[in-house]
Structure formats: structure tokens, C-alpha cells
Specification:
Length: 397
Amino acid sequence: MSLTKLALKNITGSRFRSWVVALCALLVAAFVLSTTLIIRGAENSLRLANERLGADIIVVPQGAETTVESALLMGVPAEVWMPAENLERIAAVPGVNQVSPQLYLSTLEDAVCCSAPSMFLVAYDPATDFTLRPWLEETVGGSLKLGEAIGGTFVFTPKLADNILLYGYFITLRANMEPTGTGIDQSMFFTFDTAQDISRISQSRAEQPLELPDGEISAVMVRVEDGADPHEVALDIVQQVEGVSPIESPNLFLTYRQQLTGLLRSILLVLGITWVLSVLLIGLVFSMAAYERRRQLGVLRALGATRRFVMQTLLTEAGVLALVGGLLGVAMATLSIYFLRQPIVNSFGIPFLFPALPSLLAQITIGIGLALISVTLAALVPAYRISHEEPADAMRE
């Protein structure tokens, strides 16, 4: 009888023990993959959001840092204002290379005037913009025209409609950005001229018009000169421009990064406890199984089986159970995370981007690999002991 056939026969001969071992492997693989998917998904979202913003520093009104971060990262609509004169003052700060203003607007909550309620809207200045321009030139071949917009991956034109209705104004959606797992996915971007046009039209067509304060902007995107220290430039902005707060790119979403670190520690603690308990339980189950099968294994040794063959049989049995449990675990974890990703975002308050297929396969491999290592490690000591016992002593029991 071959090694594999003998291992499979032993597995089917003790179903309860086999299910216990497979369940432990399932838990280990599922926990590992779930942890990896959530943490890596959140990290990728933060990285992509930072790259999409494309600025070294974002200058916002003092006290509005958290509001702006929540808007950019989680898509929470926000309206913050500061004098437009700050643009020139910031541009005059040593080390500043480029500046571009933005307006942060929002649709009305569940308003009948809008086909996409509670959407975060961003207006930019095409004459000075350096964050969206590279993407626009590559995707739509230039800047947006009056009445045109680009949207995140979740922004779409309603069925049987040619445009998106905002404040009684018809917006033409030119393209969608790649998913980031952040609030950018449910945001819309258009020019200052379009924002002004929406405000004008909304005065007569919307239940509540879009009000744009004269001489006000929401934020200033800053790119520093080559060789300049963004931190030093940010300090100079604070000193020279009153009532503003610069957020450096590495510090952007710092609150969410700290929250992610705390979540990672908690999950790793639970994962560590689960792994230790699973290994101990698997070791106990295999020790009991080995003790019950001492006579059988003693007879096998007496018939000429080597110690190596006996040990390989037990480890093959452990490997098959680990593989079955690991595959079930990663399948359950992948499907659960995929279909419950929005509740995860809402529960933990962090962005999340489901990984691409190559990354997902790599993480699945890690989960299955750890399940195999855990079960094999737990079965190693019982397998070694029983395989090195003398046949006569084993059959005497």
C-alpha cells in the first residue's frame, strides 16, 4: 500500500479526529488571510489616496484638518472655507514651486435635485492644477470642459440618462478613476467654471441652491521645489500665512494610520492566541491518535516498515488534513472579506481596497502555507515518538 493511500485510509477511519485537525487548519488559514487582506487592503488604500492627491503639502483652514482628511479618505462630504488671498501668500513662501486651489462641495442629503445624494464634490483650477492634469491628459486627452466631470469608480450615470443631475444641473461624466478603496471612489471632480455654472443654475432649478462664497477656497495643493524640505516649507507657511494648517503628505491620514496600527496589534494578538491554541490542540489530537494506533503501527514496523515510512505516513496524514482545512479556510475568508468589505469599512472606520488577483493569490498561498506548517509542526513530535518506538513494545500495549 502506498504512503498516500495509507494516510487517506487513516483519515477516513477516524473522521472526528480528522475534522478537528482540519478545523484547526481552517481557523489558522482563515485568520491569517483575513488579517492580511484587511491590513494590506487598508495600507494600499492609504497609499493610492496619497498618490492620487499628488501634492507635497495640502493647506487647509485651521481646525479643518480632520474634516478634510475624512472627506478625502472616507468620502464624507465637507465644506470648509478660507480667503482666496491665501493662495498668493502661500505661493510667496520660500521653497514653494506650485500652488493650486480647490473647492470642497457636496450634494444635499437625500435631495430630489440630485441623482447621487451625499456625493463629495471637488472643483479644481485647470490653469494651475498639477494633481489631476497628468491623469486627465492620459485618459481624456486634456482638461475638462464646462459641464464635464470625472468621477471615482462608484460614480456613474443613471440608467436611461445621458447625464448626472446635480442641483438641477446636467453633468457629463467623461471617465472614471481607478479604484482606491477611499472616498475618492465616490467623489466627483470638475473645474471652477463648472462649479460656478452649477451655482448659477441651481438658483432657479434646485430646491436648495449651491452657494459658493465669494473670494473663498477650501484648500491649496502645494508642490515644493526640488531639494526643498517639505517640513521646513510647512513650518514657513504656518508662520507667514495666518489661519491655515498645512498637512504634509507623509502625515496625511495620520489618524487613520495610527488607527490601523492599533487594529493590527489587536488582530495579531487574537491571531497569535488562535495559532498557539490550534497547534496545541492539533498536537494533543495527534498524540491521542498515535497512542490509540500503537499496536497497528507496531505491526506495520514488524512487517518491515521503516521508522521513516511510519513517520512519513503520519506527517502525510497531517499534511492532507492541513491542506483541506487550509483551502476551506482561505475560501471562506476570501468570500467573506469580498462580500462584507463595505461593512468592514463602516465598522473599523478605515478605507479598504480588495487586492488584485496576483496579490490575492500570494496572500492565499501564505495562509495555506501557515496552515501546513502549523499542523505539521504540531504532529511532528507525536509522529517522531511513535515511529521510533520498538515494535515489540508497541504491540505489547
